[in-house]
Specification:
Two copies of one chain form a homodimer.
Chain A (H helix, E strand, L loop, with lengths): L3 H8 L3 H9 L6 H14 L5 H8 L4 E6 L7 H17 L3 E6 L4 H10 L4 E5 L8 H6 L4 E4 L9 E5 L1 H14 L4 E5 L3 H6 L3 H16 L2 E5 L5 H14 L5 E4 L2 H13 L9 E5 L2 H6 L5 E3 L3 H16 L8 E4 L3 E2 L12
Chain A binds a DNA duplex through α2 and α4.
Pfam families (chains A, B): LacI, Peripla_BP_3
Keywords (chains A, B): DNA-binding, Transcription, Transcription regulation
InterPro entries (chains A, B): HTH_LacI, LacI/GalR-like_sensor, Lambda_DNA-bd_dom_sf, Peripla_BP_I
Chain lengths: 338, 338
DNA sequence: ATGAAAGCGCTAACAT
DNA sequence: ATGTTAGCGCTTTCAT
């Protein structure tokens, strides 16, 4: 194993010079810097992570808490995680992968052992058990998601309320007046993850302003429950001409069932989804949709957390990303004779 | 920050005693151990990761290289990654998340900096650029996947050949004689990830033994290409009564298209899939399938790599997990008048 | 069964 | 602009 001392000897300088030449924390003459860099390359030197962490009390590692529950939003979670890892590397940081399983204990462990310089926490619930610890911790933390009380916390999330509003607007522009919302499973609302409620709020407020009638129904992901929900919707509101879906698992069944029941999408019924790009793009009818900007969320979270590590950057910043509606093929002008 | 020294003082013993009491590397009287453990709890002591790594040249971190390419097998990758993280924790290890993006450079970086004690590499290609480095590295590595040359390497993977064989057997048992294989996109075969080919080999060999006629067609995941593939299959082999699908994206289109063309599953046509449980279970017709045992793969990889770290465990071990076929509703007795 | 002390490889004052 | 040196908190000989 190549050490700093060996590099120093090889370059004919002192250890600190090598250290400073590499960190750039004090000015070094071009000549010495060159010599040092040469020796580093020639010897294949890599600073020892443990030693560096011990001496500087900086590990250059960011812990990422990912929900273990593997049943929902998996591709988006993965995309965020990958975006976080990629962004972190461009700033010289590595990612430590923690599963939600350890819960609050993980926060204590990371803080106590100084394993990571900061934490990024995904899948935050409205009243998450980790929040108090995170607030108390003397390590920076950024949440991906939006708890009910954001005091003393940094958060990055999609502005789901705005997403709901955008959907309502788009359908109103197309002349629709009666809209049904196929929501997440009831369990999601009960878990109080917040995002589903926020979409609904945005949808409701904008609908009220635009004079749309709105009917909301939570829904499981199975064919059977989508079928049941659908027939109830058409029973209660036969004039429904458009759907907003926020339920990854329900979109495909929804399209299939509409087709089966003789309703063409988008000629007879329009569908707008709030879901990952992939799901929207690969559906049997490519879906006009608002996507979760996973990449950007990951990148922003990293930037925010690094800013905090390095002493720049306010704490208690809530960054809500503006939704973007992508027009595909599932939403069109409302049919005439309604 | 609580240090070992503080714990020692609080417990009225020396630093080394605390260290040994915690590591169990030499015998400690029950009384002292008790006192130490009490102090640890009372003070909320967590060993400093950097210091420990420096002194012991063990980081208790395993690096996990996950493919960045987020377009395929995402849920399975995620499931494996989570299983790896969970299993690692039960053995006192943490996971460092590396994206495939860095490629071979990541291997050098980890080895040079001693950031991790070992590596687990996912999504290995037949002739992966990282293999030479991994073989040369003096850190243990375990691959999830099976390259063409496994010399000097530890691998964990599903036995895809056996999976193919199991599918052939199941369909033969049900009286099918003409079988079509809907495979992965041609690009997958060209990328030489190997698993698709291995399934096919197993399928072919067992089919030959059982007297089945087999037709293989690679296929993109879109509705259009599944439709095209399907009509070609029925053109060439009108007597086809069963399908084996190995293409996550194609399964739903396949079922939809069969239904549309008036062929009931499983009454008229049987379908057996090689795909993740979730996909199989949530398809419009629950699929009889062979799943990728993601959890087990993750766990085995961790166990194997830790065995190597700790000096037990042979290197050059290839562990092929036996496939298990789960009978659901998509495969039944072949129709009579064929 | 326990202590004392020498590093592990690096960073960051403190020199000059 | 560069060198000297004192730790960072732990593990692990070497003593006893």
């Amino acid at each position: 194993m190549v050490t700093l001392a060996e590099v120093a000897r090889h370059a004919g300088v002192s250890a600190s010079t090598v250290s400073y030449a590499l960190s750039g924390k004090r000015s070094i003459s071009a000549a010495t810097r060159e010599r040092v860099e040469n020796s580093v390359r020639k010897l294949g030197y890599h600073p020892n992570a443990g030693a560096r962490a011990l001496a500087s009390s900086r590990s250059n590692i960011i812990a990422l808490m990912v929900p273990l529950r593997t049943d929902m939003y998996v591709p988006v979670m993965m995309e965020i995680a990958m975006a976080v890892a990629t962004a972190a590397r461009t700033h010289g940081y590595d990612i430590l992968l923690l599963t939600g399983e350890e819960g609050a204990e993980a926060v204590r462990r990371i803080e106590g052992s100084a394993l990571a310089d900061a934490m990024i926490v995904m899948d935050v619930e409205l009243d998450d058990e980790r929040l108090p610890l995170l607030r108390a911790a003397n390590r920076p933390a950024v949440l991906i998601g939006l708890p009910s009380d954001t005091a003393g916390l940094n958060c990055v999330d999609l502005d789901f309320a705005a997403a709901g509003a955008v959907c309502a607007e788009h359908l109103a522009d197309l002349g629709h007046r009666e809209i049904a919302v196929i929501g997440e499973a009831a369990a999601v609302y009960e878990r109080h993850t917040g995002f589903a409620e926020r979409t609904l709020t945005g949808l409701r407020e904008r609908s009220a302003e635009l004079g749309l009638r709105l009917l909301h129904r939570p829904c499981e992901g199975s064919y059977a429950s989508v079928a049941a929900t659908l027939s109830r919707v058409f029973d209660e509101r036969p004039g429904t001409t458009a759907f907003v879906v926020q339920n990854e698992a329900a979109t495909d069944p929804l399209l299939a069932l509409l087709r089966q029941s003789g309703r063409a999408v988008p000629e007879d019924v329009s569908v707008v989804a709030v879901c990952p790009e992939q799901v929207a793009a690969h559906a049997s009818v490519p879906l006009t949709s608002v996507a979760v900007p996973a990449q950007e969320m990951g990148r922003r979270a990293v930037e925010q957390v690094i800013a905090k590590i390095e002493g720049r950057g306010s704490n208690e910043e809530v960054m809500l990303l503006a939704p973007e509606l992508t027009v595909r093929e599932s939403a069109a002008q409302a049919p005439a004779g309604t």
